[in-house]
Write a structure and sequence with these properties.
Layout (H helix, E strand, L loop, with lengths): L5 H44 L8 E3 L5 H17 L8 H9 L3 E3 H11 L3
Antiparallel strand pairs: 1-2
């Protein structure tokens, strides 16, 4: 029976730990971004439409006035940026949803915005 080299075992353990930490950090980063986007979107709807939304709601963009869509988009963008993330202007996309007669499931909208938000 040969003894395992402690340096090799330690190195393998360290490499595995590093990979695990990187994966959990990436997942944690996405979870944080998602929470920020969700909170900002909910706050914008409360501020502009005086109603809350949750992830199971559907947004029917055609029922929202163009000026309010602009305010919601700008509010979400500003809020996400204020939390330290990069975020493109969202108002043009929200307006395009209305112009194309689209609806958005809130959870899917949040996930889509998270994809364009940068650390």
């Amino acid at each position: 029976m040969t003894a395992e080299n402690p340096n090799t075992a330690s190195s393998a353990h360290s490499e595995t730990l590093t990979k695990t930490l990187l994966q959990s950090s990436a997942a944690g980063g996405t979870a944080v971004k998602r929470a920020v986007v969700k909170n900002c979107l909910v706050a914008a709807f409360v501020a502009e439409l005086h109603r809350t939304i949750d992830e199971t709601d559907t947004i029917v963009w055609t029922t929202i006035d163009d000026r309010v869509i602009l305010k919601i988009g700008d509010a979400v963008t500003d809020c996400v940026r204020a939390k330290g993330f990069g975020c493109p202007l969202l108002a043009p996309s929200f307006q395009a949803f209305k112009d194309n007669n689209l609806v958005s499931l809130v959870s899917s909208l949040i996930d889509s915005i998270v994809q364009v938000v940068t650390p």
